[in-house]
Amino acid sequence: MWIYRLGLTKAKEYALTGKPVSGREAADIGLINRAVPFSELEDTVQRFAEQLASIPVSQLQAMKLVVNQAYENMGLASTQTLGCILDGLMRNTAEGKQFTDIAKEKGVNAVITARDAPLVTTAWRRSTNSQIQTT
Question: Does pTM top 0.85 for this prediction?
């Protein structure tokens, strides 16, 4: 769904690299509306809720319908369906199972570190026979 927020190239960058995104960066790139310090969170949410509550419900409903329909016209529903299908398929590939097995055995941090290590080659990602080396 990131493609709808970030555009094609940025969505690919994050999807293909697995690069983590902080809350601040997510706000800066438009993935989320805003990032606020925890100490300001309650007040920020309260102000936003009050702003929405001041708008007539019929106008909120109409605007939500228009915005949601625009995304539907762009293929949101089919993209969500395809995303779920592909997620299920990819988890059951040899590479997906290998990733999961190592995460279970050595922990998520170990498998992510190994995956992102400079010595991990593109060949590993294509191979069903190689193992990730973790320490």
Answer: no
